[in-house]
């Protein structure tokens, strides 16, 4: 599903950015080449970013220790 239609950024794109190390919505926007548009996606981006951060934290905690 798209998070931002104006910039064609999907939920998968946000999750990929977080997995690659993005630690803020600003970093996600920069990584995706996000340009200012209508602004209706701001809340959705924050929600998906939070989900991605949680998923990444859970995956890290479940990874076997090296």
How would you explain this protein's 3D organization?
Keywords: 2Fe-2S, Electron transport, Iron, Iron-sulfur, Metal-binding, Transport. It comes from Nocardia albiluteola. Belongs to the Bfd family. InterPro entries: BFD-associated_ferredoxin, BFD-like_2Fe2S-bd_dom, BFD-like_2Fe2S-bd_dom_sf. Pfam families: Fer2_BFD. The chain is mostly helical and about 70 residues long. Helix content is about 60%, strand content about 10%. The chain contains three helices and two strands. The protein has helices spanning about 10-20, 25-30, 40-60, and strands at about 1-5, 10. The chain has a two-stranded antiparallel sheet. A hairpin with a 4-residue loop joins strand 1 (about 1-5) and strand 2 (about 10). Helix 1 packs across helix 3. The longest helix is centred in the last third of the chain and has 21 residues, at about 40-60. It is elongated, with a radius of gyration of 13 Å. The chain starts with a strand and ends with a helix. The mean pLDDT is about 90.
């Amino acid at each position: 599903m798209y998070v931002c239609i104006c910039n064609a950024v999907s939920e998968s794109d946000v999750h990929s950015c977080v997995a690659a190390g993005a630690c803020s919505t600003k970093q996600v926007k920069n990584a995706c080449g996000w340009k200012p548009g209508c602004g209706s996606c701001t809340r959705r981006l924050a929600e998906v970013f939070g989900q991605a951060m949680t998923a990444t934290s859970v995956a890290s905690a479940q990874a076997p220790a090296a």
